[in-house]
């Protein structure tokens, strides 16, 4: 059976050209028409507007407490992606069943924290091959390039703080004080001088030099090397509950210093 799977489009109000993502549309608006960035409306395969749930803040105190508990699990998994046992690459945190209000609140919080326009990057209708299986369902993506906004939104819960960087000596985390610290990587001449000085007072100084550093990278990137944080949700997977499948995609950079 043939199923129509497609990406929704946005249409330029000036020249009626169609684009598959808001970013490409905004680039066209600024370059060709000198227009400012504004929220866009996506059109389906029949050129009809696609109805999307609008981001909204949670008002109930009890529901907000539940949201903060869920958010702390997201932050913990993002922080653990810095561990040197995991490769530096695009990483994805996924929760298959999240209340719709949690996802919409998270997006609304990011919109509050940034001066950028927060609008869906793309809307697609495609097959969901996991459980629950859907032959055709909606997938919505937001892309955020503001690290400060993401950090403030994730730090709304007070249990854990989002970590942007971490230093490790092999698999053990060490303090990384910067250039003026004893933990910096010394030259061989400096190491010999330090060992000679310490031997005169009867002890050997152990310098725990980091062997690797990990960083969460969220920025515009260069050229085609994008470094955004992508928020993906599937709003219509579940038939009898207001639950979304939630995915958070981000880039972890690893630097081996050995």
UniProtKB/TrEMBL annotation:
It comes from Paramuricea clavata. InterPro entries: Znf_C2H2_type (IPR013087). This is GPI transamidase component PIG-S. Gene3D superfamilies: Classic Zinc Finger. PROSITE patterns: ZINC_FINGER_C2H2_1, ZINC_FINGER_C2H2_2.
């Amino acid at each position: 059976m043939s199923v129509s799977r497609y990406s929704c489009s946005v249409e330029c109000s000036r020249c009626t050209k169609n684009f598959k993502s808001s970013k490409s549309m905004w680039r066209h608006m600024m370059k060709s028409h000198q227009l400012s960035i504004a929220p866009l409306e996506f059109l389906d395969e029949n050129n009809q507007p696609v109805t999307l749930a609008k981001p909204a803040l949670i008002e109930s105190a009890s529901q907000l407490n539940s949201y903060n508990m869920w958010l702390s699990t997201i932050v913990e998994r993002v922080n653990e992606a810095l561990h040197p046992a995991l490769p530096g690459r695009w990483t994805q945190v996924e929760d298959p069943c999240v209340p719709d209000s949690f996802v919409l609140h998270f997006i609304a919080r990011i919109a509050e924290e940034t001066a950028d326009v927060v609008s869906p990057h793309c809307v697609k209708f495609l097959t969901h091959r996991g459980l629950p299986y859907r032959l055709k369902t909606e997938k919505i993506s937001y892309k955020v390039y503001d690290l400060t906004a993401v950090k403030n939104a994730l730090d709304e819960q007070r249990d854990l703080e989002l970590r942007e960087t971490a230093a490790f000596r092999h698999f053990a985390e060490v303090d990384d004080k910067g250039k003026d610290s004893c933990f910096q990587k010394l030259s061989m001449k400096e190491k010999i001088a330090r060992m000679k000085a310490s031997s005169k007072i009867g002890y050997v100084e152990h310098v725990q030099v980091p062997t690797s550093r990990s960083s969460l990278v969220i920025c515009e990137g260069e050229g085609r090397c994008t470094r955004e944080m992508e928020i993906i949700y599937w709003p219509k997977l579940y038939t009898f509950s207001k639950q979304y499948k939630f995915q958070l995609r981000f880039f972890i950079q690893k630097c081996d210093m050995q």
